[in-house]
Design brief:
This protein is mainly α and about 325 residues long. The protein has 2 domains: about 100 residues, no CATH class; about 220 residues, MetI-like (MetI-like fold, Orthogonal Bundle), CATH 1.10.3720. Helix content is about 75%, strand content about 0%. The longest helix has about 35 residues.
Length: about 325
């Protein structure tokens, strides 16, 4: 198990390094003048040249990427023209707009995204697994057809449409909840939970459709296996057959997919964050793209990519632990 973990982590580090090269090249080597973007459209050529020197953009591409890696592992100094700012490792640079450290900005926004992702994943797993098992057990009946129709509708409905429908139904028409306004967990846990309820439901319902279909398929396959027929022949109750034996065979693919989706949610919940005004990584990425703040864009994309890579490692480990037939090699 230890060897398996080391191999996966080593591969993950290599992938993240390759990702950093791709991301850096994509945003800094494309046509355009990053110094002019950082300085602004009204800057004179002399001011643009000064900003280019301050940012180190007058150096070779290899030197610039070397400084980028130095910041990640050892930290680096930045000149603002009037002072020198030190950015501790892992340093992803300074924002063009605010001179704020990108790492600090990401860490400030990360809790909101993490709370949205974990809450939505909990909703998705509870609804998806429950719906999938019920569809498999009631196969061929009206219940199974109705649940299949709902999962197909959930798969095809865009998340922002689902969010708007929930807002209109729950907040405007039924008035069960006020319109959500994000409150940090540390300030008011109860208000935070109430305001996150609709975002959790929106993203969780959207994601639950795939888990319902996956669980249904895996449960049906397990129920058709020989050992399940043997349990039934020996008189084992249907609830025990489904809950203790059939569901166990359906768990590994669901666990692996949920770990991978959780990493994707860390940066893929852009529409949900924008719709409900959650100051997370997705909204930060949209704002930085609008402001052409390249260091923030690069930092957020790199963090999101690293989260997806790490989620792949976790998914491999969880799948290996849930299914002993997978060789840990």
């Amino acid at each position: 198990m230890t060897r398996y973990l080391i191999q996966r982590l080593a591969a993950a580090v290599l992938v993240v390094l390759v990702l950093s090269v791709v991301v850096y090249a994509l945003f800094y080597l494309v046509p355009g003048d990053a110094a002019k973007i950082a300085c602004g459209e009204k800057c004179s050529p002399q001011q643009v040249a000064q900003v280019r020197t301050q940012l180190g953009l007058d150096e070779s591409v290899y030197a610039q990427y070397g400084h980028f890696l130095q910041g990640l592992f050892a930290g680096r100094d930045f000149s603002t023209g009037t002072a020198v700012l030190h950015c501790d490792a892992p340093c992803l640079g300074l924002s063009y707009q605010t001179d704020q450290e990108v790492t600090g900005l990401i860490l400030e926004r990360l809790p909101a995204t993490a709370s949205l992702a974990f809450g939505a994943m909990t909703v998705a797993l509870v609804i998806g697994i429950g719906t999938g098992v019920l569809s498999a057990v009631r196969r061929g009946g009206l219940t199974e057809r109705g649940l299949t129709l709902l999962t197909l509708a959930g798969t095809g409905m865009p998340v922002f449409i689902l969010g708007l429908l929930l807002l209109m139904a729950v907040c405007a028409y039924l008035q069960w909840l006020p319109f959500p306004s994000y409150v940090p967990l540390t300030e008011n846990p109860e208000q935070w939970a109430w305001n996150m309820l609709l975002p959790w439901l929106t993203l969780g319902l959207f994601e639950s459709a795939k888990y319902a279909r996956l669980t249904r398929t895996a449960t049906l396959e397990t129920l058709a296996e020989d050992h399940i027929r043997t349990f039934r022949a020996y008189g084992v109750g249907e609830r025990s057959v489904v809950g203790r034996h059939a569901l166990r065979g359906a768990v590994p693919p669901v666990v692996a997919l949920s770990a991978l989706d959780l990493g994707t949610m860390m940066g893929g919940a852009v529409l949900t964050e924008s719709l409900f005004g959650i100051p997370g990584l997705g909204k930060t990425l949209i704002d930085s793209i609008r402001d052409i703040d390249l260091p923030v864009v690069v930092g957020v994309v790199l963090v999101i990519g690293a989260a997806v890579v790490l989620a792949n490692v976790v998914a491999d480990l969880l799948y290996a632990l849930a299914d002993r037939r997978v060789a840990l090699a």
